[in-house]
Automatic annotation (TrEMBL):
The keyword Cytoplasm does not apply. This is Unannotated protein. Coiled coil: none annotated. GO terms for biological process: peptidoglycan metabolic process; proteolysis. Belongs to the peptidase S13 family. The lineage of its organism: unclassified sequences, metagenomes, ecological metagenomes. GO terms for molecular function: serine-type carboxypeptidase activity. Gene3D superfamilies: DD-peptidase/beta-lactamase superfamily. Residues 368-387 are annotated as: Disordered. The keyword Hydrolase applies. PANTHER family: D-ALANYL-D-ALANINE CARBOXYPEPTIDASE, PENICILLIN-SENSITIVE CARBOXYPEPTIDASE A. Keywords: Hydrolase.
Length: 387
């Protein structure tokens, strides 16, 4: 009799519950989610059209996001500057022979690494220093005073030109105006528009560029250029969108530090804003696409071929962490999803297994778009910067 009563109570309880995730999602979804390689991740799945949470597990716990954090970095800079903003760095003569001034806008795109210049058409700092020597063939040594450029770019520019001993450099004193020193401009480099930097940062998960975009946003919003300043800036910008930032704590703008923490709930709320806020359009547009572009170009083709071209997401991976967050097309629906697995194994094999589990899990819910719904468009190859 007791067993019968318990059965009746259970039946009544189930009868009054709303449609559960088990009824909406296929069983294989949960099989892959339960993979030992994922280690109990923070997961949330939302119907983007209704904002209804379809499924969540461990989603409120702050976790290490790895490069999924770059969605926050790019959102912060997109909310700070116009997407068409460009940055210029120039070198000038002074009234003193052999003394030059490099003056810039803290261009995040500039580099002194010849590998990056060649592969990605980056603006190249050594070009400016070389122009100083070419302006006077008699110069054997020059002194550089700089403002609005990164110390490391000057240092590595010297190394790239193999002029370690013939270039002395120091930052401009705060109480000295650049205009009072410069005479003739010798050469300059202009960056591509900001939205193209956002594209590159997301598509190829560029850590240096992302960090520089984060610090640029930090400074432009009046915060000190420190870890705490960066964190305060992110909190301000993301909170202003109406996103719940409970538990969010960032150490850097790239996602490399394991001490970075954010919940899957917070990531999902930002992604919903990315889809609807026109200021954040470039983020949605430039997320990698499954099996077709960026850091997702080699994924899904074998693990879940039915999902190729149907997932647009930011990847993340550092030791012990595998993450993925973005949008999945499922017929007439588009899901916002977040998977933060920060307790996976630290070997390459275990991380690869975790990625496969995530890909296959999402592959169980993707479907070709219904006629009239525009599927994701693959990104093209890297662009050329003006010099």
């Amino acid at each position: 009799m007791k067993k019968l009563s318990a059965f009746v109570v259970a039946f009544i309880f189930l009868s009054i519950q709303p449609a559960s995730a088990v009824e909406v999602l296929p069983q294989p979804f949960f099989n892959y989610l339960g993979s030992k390689y994922l280690g109990g991740p923070g997961v949330i799945l939302i119907d983007q059209s209704t904002n209804e949470i379809v499924y969540q597990s461990g989603a409120e716990k702050p976790r290490t996001p790895a490069s999924v954090l770059k969605v926050f970095t790019t959102a912060a800079i997109a909310l700070t500057l116009d997407p068409e903003t460009t940055f210029q760095t120039a070198i000038y003569k002074t009234d003193k022979k052999g003394v030059f001034v490099i003056w810039g806008d803290n261009d995040p795109w500039i580099t002194s690494n010849s590998k990056y210049r060649t592969a990605n058409n980056r603006a190249y700092m050594p070009t400016l220093i070389k122009a100083a020597f070419e302006s006077d063939k008699k110069l054997k040594k020059i002194n550089l005073i700089y403002k609005g450029v990164n110390n490391s770019d000057i240092y590595y520019a010297k190394k790239a030109l193999k002029r370690k001993s013939s270039v002395a450099y120091k930052p401009l004193s705060r109480n000295v105006e650049v205009e009072s020193l410069i005479t003739e401009r010798i050469a300059s480099i202009t960056s591509p528009p900001l939205h193209k930097m956002i594209r590159f940062s997301l598509l190829y998960s560029d850590n240096v560029l992302s960090q520089r975009l984060a610090m640029l946003a930090t400074g432009r919003n009046g915060y000190p250029l420190t870890k705490s300043g960066l964190n305060s800036m992110i909190l301000e910008k993301i909170s202003a969108l109406g996103v719940d930032t409970t538990g969010l704590s960032f150490i850097d703008g790239s996602g490399l530090d394991r001490k970075n923490k954010v919940s899957a709930v917070t990531v999902s709320q930002l992604l919903l804003k990315v889809k609807t806020d026109p200021r954040l359009k470039s983020i949605y547009d430039h997320l990698p696409i499954s099996g077709e572009s960026g850091t997702l170009i080699s994924r899904y083709r074998e693990t879940a071929p039915q999902a190729v071209g149907l997932i647009r997401a930011k990847t993340g991976s550092i030791k012990g962490v595998v993450s993925l967050a973005g949008f999945a097309t499922s017929g007439e629906k588009e899901y916002v999803f977040v998977v933060l697995a920060d307790e996976v194994g630290r070997t390459r094999s275990s991380q690869n297994s975790a990625r496969k589990a995530i890909d296959r899990m999402l592959g169980t819910i993707t479907k070709p778009p219904v006629i009239g719904i525009t599927p994701p468009t693959p990104e093209s190859t890297p662009f050329t910067t003006a010099q």
